[in-house]
Amino acid sequence: MAWAPAARSLRYQATRPHDQSGCGPEVLSGQKGFPVAQRSWMFASTVVILLACGCTSAGDINRKLPVMGMALAKVPNEQYIVDPPDSIAVELPDQPELSSTQQVRSDGVIVLPLVGEVQVARKTTPEIREMLEEMYAEYYKELSIIVQVTAFRSKQIFVYGEVRRVGPQPYTGYQTVLDALGRAGGVTSRAAWKRAKVVRPGLEGQEVFSVNLKGLLLEGDATQNVQLAEDDVLYVPPTVLAWIGYQIRSLLFPASAAASLATLPEATAYAPVR
User: Fold this and answer.
1) CA–CA separation, 44 vs 48, rounded Å?
2) Whole-number Å distance between alpha carbons of 227 and 175
3) Cis peptide before 85 (omega within 30 of 0)
């Protein structure tokens, strides 16, 4: 992607032969300039300063998350497709003894009283409800049945970058950027919160949606609250200063940087702001 060449370019500039200003590998390797210990201390101080720099409004954004989450609370998405190992609850209010909550087996089956094994995989909850109504019609007339997904385990979305908790999240079929960001604990102080992205994989390549978190959370622009799909990646990039700080840290502490990069998708690791 477009981010990777920029990262390679910065690494090249940091290791190319020195120019007339005296910058280059000679300075970094100790052949000229300040003593090695002093230069290391200066670089480490620079990293700390750059990584500490960030958007002072990150706290404002994070404080808005619980309020916005309550305002945009949604009912479960009836278009969600049930798959193993999701769990579903089948409730029969008129016959509570027949109600149960079960995890979908690897073969896509659950077992219910009276009707036995029921194939529920690759079906939505309304489809499962209609099927059960037909099956229980042999025993009861006008029986009310409620079907809900109680544990979402079969699908995921991913949140990376400058958020407090990176990694996969269960996909529930109705998440938005706001939902995913709230579950991730909000943004860090190093986040370029105006330039978040949703990356959506597809058979014909990736589709990328730009997201302005300031517009969403501080200005109420609901158009920025992108509806997420299965396997979407929400990426919040670092600010320019924070990104430079990461690059300096990778030069000073390559083993630590490599460990950090190993936890991120290739396309998003330390990606600069565009």
Assistant:
1) 6
2) 6
3) yes
